[in-house]
Design a protein that fits this description.
With 210 residues, the protein is of the alpha+beta class. The chain has 2 domains: 18-45 and 112-209, Gyrase A, domain 2, CATH 3.30.1360; 47-109. 14% of the residues lie in helices and 34% in strands. The chain has helices at residues 124-131, 179-189, 200-209; strands at residues 18-22, 25-30, 39-42, 47-52, 73-76, 79-83, 88-93, 107-109, 114-120, 145-151, 154-162, 169-175, 196-198. Strands 10-11-12-9-3-13 form a 6-stranded mixed beta sheet, with helices on both faces. A hairpin with a 2-residue loop joins strand 10 and strand 11. The longest helix is centred in the last third of the chain and has 11 residues, at 179-189. The termini are far apart.
């Protein structure tokens, strides 16, 4: 059987310094010039699932319980789960977690249908003020948490993993069809924050530090 090449909807217009092929994705592990400004990482290869069922109380994707309250998220052992509403949650299998995918009928893989990036750095929330009116620094909201709202006028899921200075950062995902327009808008808005394309290796190090 011929392997099918899987192609990310993200293009930063810059070739990575080092890549790795994994599950038919060519993944950028490192870029030249990864600096001290904001980092933007293509995570479109990361497995993403949609879970929908009438009762989520006993559902544990990858052995992790789904948060009870919409907007709450949990990050455990490389599994990120976000409660969206009464009957739905999104699940991210971050790099390093090699567990088998759930086989439940109410689980749908959305990896191929969506764009996904991480944005990391101390100025991430000043940057986000340029592209959305969502309030990431509301003191009543504790990390990790999910916002479902517009970024660059596009419906998105945005999961904040840290609000803490140098380790601040979030993950953003939206429909694949918005791919290049979204990346163009984010990179343009990030110029004043010295935003640079960054490889998965730095992202994995960041997640491990949280």
């Amino acid at each position: 059987m011929v392997d099918i090449k899987r192609v990310s909807p993200v293009s930063f217009g810059k070739s990575p310094k080092r890549t790795e092929v994994r599950d038919n994705w060519t993944i950028a592990m490192e870029y030249d010039g990864e600096g001290q400004g904001l980092s933007i990482v293509d995570l479109s290869h990361v497995t993403r699932l949609d879970v929908q069922t009438g009762d989520l109380s006993g559902v544990t994707p990858f052995g992790v319980a789904i948060p009870e309250v919409p907007g709450q998220s949990v990050l455990k052992d490389g599994i990120l789960i976000n409660r969206m509403n009464g009957i739905q949650a999104s699940v991210f299998q971050l790099p390093g977690n090699g567990a088998d995918l759930p086989t439940d009928v109410f689980v749908t893989e959305t990896t191929e249908n969506t764009l996904c990036v991480a944005i990391m750095g101390k100025d991430v929330f000043s940057f986000m003020e340029k592209v959305t009116n969502l309030d990431f620094l509301d003191p009543k909201v504790t990390v990790p948490f999910l916002f479902q709202g517009p970024c660059c006028h596009v419906p998105c899921q945005i999961i904040t993993l840290s609000k803490d200075g140098e380790t601040a950062g979030l993950i953003l995902t939206c429909s694949r069809g918005y791919g290049q327009d979204m990346i163009h808008s984010l990179l343009d808005a990030g110029v004043e924050f010295d935003m640079k394309p960054t490889g998965e290796e730095k992202f994995s190090t960041w997640v491990a530090s949280l």
